[in-house]
Amino acid sequence: MKDYNQPTSIKIPAKPEYIGVARLVTAAYAGFLGFDSEMTEDIKIAVSEACTNAILQLHKEAQPESSMVEVLSYAEDSRLIIEVKYPTKEAIPAEKTPAQLYERDLGMSILTSIMDKVEIMKSKDRNVILKLVKKIPR
Q1: Residue 47: inside a domain, yes or no?
Q2: Is residue 88 situated within a structural domain?
Q3: Exposed, middle or buried, 92 (CB in 10 Å: 0-12/13-18/19+)?
Q4: pLDDT at 63
């Protein structure tokens, strides 16, 4: 694995037709880090589910279609970290355990089964961050 310590970041409109762009950017970065094609496909599925979750939440809150979803990917401590960030008007729930995430909905159960770790966090600027972690293969 080469040292790709520079993150990749993309902002997409909160519309389903843009999810494929986020998938491709993240998949390319995962390939640089040494993930094989099967693991990269899993990562693409996880990015799709995370972006879909963000878009559904934004539409549930009736946020304008001008809302953006940011997908940030970076390597840290031999792990690929993907953060899907989006604005929210609602109070953000406390962090949840993997079991609680699994019970929440099908998309979250897919994420918790594909990724090594899944967290929902809140940022100071009233954004939700869905953090996905996958160990980088040696």
Answers
A1: yes
A2: yes
A3: middle
A4: 65
